[in-house]
């Protein structure tokens, strides 16, 4: 899961509920001081939330973009039903389309990890709200075999135990497999609060999607939108060469953020924001 480096909102940003035709979604909405040159919709990944993008907000607004990071249906501070069918890929894609419609036309769409798969489905369903698509740390199909196994174990645990018990087991397993420096108390409290606020059926449904996603690269290549594939130099969910190949098939701009892994938005926000702005400027001129 992404770990935000801090939680203080930058100047010009506020947390609120975005009203759409599909219901209300919790967002962090960051606006530049001057009229924006464009609007960006930021869709988080599995076990994630809008806070995963918090370090990108100030550099994006400094470049003149309105940046809106969202909690998807059933994620953290957005409500969702206790029904896995509500989190089918098509349903989540319709949510993204509704969010984009609420923000206005010409939205630059960015999806991180699972959010990339959801964003891809939204674009394949309807390109009209979007100016461009960025897939961040997102591969062409299902996650790699070791991560599939780990994710399916999590899905099984969520079906058998409550969220608090699963959280404790996750923390225990993380400590045993990869002992690391202590997590700062503020971050530890946030990660647990986010986990406990997420609807378990959302995690179960999307976890299964991550392990079974088909390769839709050829379909996406036919979509007439500027495309960008951005990742860290290392990725545990999808091999970096698979993202290289996907970008080539998509005729997409390809960016690798050195020193970052699966969450360049949180790990190297400065270079990530610079790469995004370059791509959007190129897209706006196209």
From TrEMBL:
Keywords: Hydrolase. Residues 40-275 form the AB hydrolase-1 domain. It comes from the Bacteria. GO terms for molecular function: monoacylglycerol lipase activity. InterPro entries: AB_hydrolase_1, AB_hydrolase_fold, AB_hydrolase_sf. SUPFAM superfamilies: alpha/beta-Hydrolases. It holds the Pfam family Abhydrolase_6. One of its GO terms (biological process) is acylglycerol catabolic process. GO terms for cellular component: membrane. This is Alpha/beta hydrolase.
